[in-house]
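Team,

Forwarding the record for the chain on the shared tracking sheet. I've put the sequence and predicted structure together so nobody has to dig through attachments.
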Amino acid sequence: MANSFKFNSQIKTGLYAAVVVFLAYTMIFGFRKSFTVATFEGITIAGYSYKTILVICQMLGYLMAKFYGIKYISELKRTGRGKIIIVLTAIAWLSWLFFAITPVPYNIVFLFINGFPLGMLWGVVFSYVEGRRSTDFIGATLAVSFIFASGFVKSVGSWLSITFHLSEFWIPFSTGLVFALPLLIFVYLMEKIPPPDEDDIKHRADRIPMIEKDRKFFLKEFFGGLVACVIIYCFATIFRDIRDNFSAEMWNEMGFANQPAIFAKTETPITLIVLVLVGSMVLIKNNFTALKTAHYFIIAGFIMAGACSLLFKANLIQPIWWMTCVGLGLYMVYIPFNAVFFDRLISSFQYAGNVGFLIYIADSFGYVGSIGVLLSKEIFKVKLNWVTFFSNSVIILSVIGCLLTVYSLYYFSRKFISNAKI
């Protein structure tokens, strides 16, 4: 009877946490990406694309936040997190106001100011849900929120622009106005999520702040595997960001201009499929089996992204199917790292620590890669057809990514067997 009560309580807590963090992070996304629906056609700065400069400046903010977050998020305590989320989001929102009222090119600095606080928020939100037996499902729900939110926020921004004839510069601030009150509600509800119980700690290891000595020890212990994971994640981040930031340009190139619903139309099915695939890992009780399964998901994602790009280039599938399938493949690579991979890694080897430390290491190098690609495009004056560049690059990425993932699986399997013998 007692076990049945605990199980029911665990399910209720997991479902509550999953819904709340999904909605909370969707609201946070409302302050981040709506500006990408604008193309800022014809605006250049010193011969460089204005929109690309905006994207790079925002990414630089994320990048600095991720490197700073390696320390800040790994040492984050459980108290005061709600206030941190509200303050950081408010800074990001105000940056859009100043972006709108400040003339070009001086307003580009506010993209950096927007990116830095938002770059801190993933780790803060994930800290509410890690280290639980239901973390796979909750984490998957949280992670897919930015797939859904990316399309949803762009659709809202595009709708506001068309309906109210907004200037491209006012779209981001206006979109934030739509999401401000719901964010406050969901942050309040997140604060009501109970901490992990004794059984959670027993099965998933205790999640505690990590000081510098703990972080160095963990990196030294798993260096080879973590390097492979960071490179894989870096690839996934680069192409996720290109698809996310320049999807408007790609849709225009493929003949789908001025269709606000197209963004949500592709991202919603991806959200549901990834949620089912990754969330189902909660059924795998053995932590190392789950870690291996995450590797299999990643390999399958690379294969899907590469295969559907080959079919698209051969004119065997339609653009909307290509954008959906390549997005699904990339997110099958990207989401496990943000939801289950690092959580199960810590649980498999029973290290006391937290997931935020590992996610922020991977994220920091991921954004280095994304910014490097965009800077190279602008510095070397590369004139890109985004559809051609993206499809060709994804095919190459899928081959390299599969090889790296196989190596990572081999590394952690050997490490696990070695530790079991001790």
